[in-house]
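Sample intake sheet
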Amino acid sequence: MEIRKDVSLKPFNTFGIDVRCSHFVQIDSDEALEALLAESVFLSQPKIILGGGSNVLFRKDVHALVVKNEITGIAVVREDDNHYWVRAGAGENWHGVVLHCIRMGYAGIENLALIPGCVGASPMQNIGAYGVEIKDVFDSLEAVQIPDGSKRTFTRDECDFGYRESVFKRGEKDRWIITHVTLRLNKRPVFHIEYGAIEEELEKINSDRLSIKDVAQAVINIRSSKLPNPAVLGNAGSFFKNPVVAMDLCESLRAAYPEMPAYPVSGSEVKLAAGWLIEQTGWKGRRIGSCGVHDRQALVLVNYGGATGDEIYALSERVAGDVQERFGVTLEREVNLF
């Protein structure tokens, strides 16, 4: 473990924003984390915990210790007649874990293929796609408290999952370093293929017998066709959450826009498609200087090269402002701002 000073974070965030941090350290084990907790720099500096850097936007240099979590490992820690309990290090690449589980026949996260980032962020964000969220397969997580080093296991209920959020983005924000996540996966698949274009994509795959591998490949094909590769074009995936609005507002909007996608959440609330709203305001494919809105997915803001975090933030303000003005709907950012 080496704590370095004045380090560029450009290689460690998928937007490719070139900002610097005052101190930087990479940890790859529980033992390294325990040693870090005793360091004077850790005790005295503000801290930012970084995984894959796929859900952050750095607007300026950070006067903080950035801790890059690289704790790895995947193992079955328990099983019964119906389930496997799979424990993964927080620094494991999420998509890599999905592929590993598919190879081993552990079902339940195939719809979450190709989501960028690391395992540790999955419960923080309650990541989700195509009808499945991490809370659906979550068992528990292990975390170390900042700064006293005490350890705690959080159950599903204690994580208090919501739409793209958890207690770690609210009351427990910035208080914990997640080290491991345990998922309860199925021995017999329960397929979720009625969302988006999965069924249509599965017809192209033309498999004799539906498998979790087929579902994952369909999701990969769809996401690859819509979402830019961060290694080629800087981005953080979906920049905005899909807004949840009151039924009354949805009905008034549907009267004016009958084609508007809407998905019931409860008897009184409906989820709207943020990408559709953004596209209607004319932002899809539009470029402002070195950044813009992706031409195949309006939810994705992109860095064409050399954009600053402030420029991307300003773009997001303009996009959200136009959606608010036209539809009366407030868009909430999914990315974390620094």
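Comment: The mean pLDDT is 95. Residues 17 and 308 are 6 Å apart (CA to CA).
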